[in-house]
Amino acid sequence: MSKLNQMTRAELRAVPRREWGDDIGPVQELVLLPRSQRHDSGYRLIDVVAVLLSGDLVLCGGCSDALHCFRGTPWNVDALPKSGAVRIWFHEPVTLGPDLSSLMVERAET
Prior knowledge:
Blueprint: H1 9-13, E1 27-38, E2 44-52, E3 57-64, E4 66-70, E5 75-79, E6 86-96, E7 102-107
Parallel strand pairs: 4-7
Antiparallel strand pairs: 1-2, 1-6, 2-3, 5-6, 6-7
């Protein structure tokens, strides 16, 4: 069973945050955690936990109010049993752009 299934929202938010400009490499899953703070647009900010191919977890986003998916790869959405957080999992690895107002998600180059 995936460790994500047993984690609370607080535990998910406590994973290490990526530094500005860090390339974390290919990602296999994203967990979306809406925050109470709002962006200038009026929409809520979103913390994004990236699950790397190694299984490591990295916190991204935080200043983003939207995800933009380009050069798509097939994906699925579900809700984690303990935290209720929305999980997006991909059939092919993706990469994440910088933590800006919108977080870019693209198919990883192979």
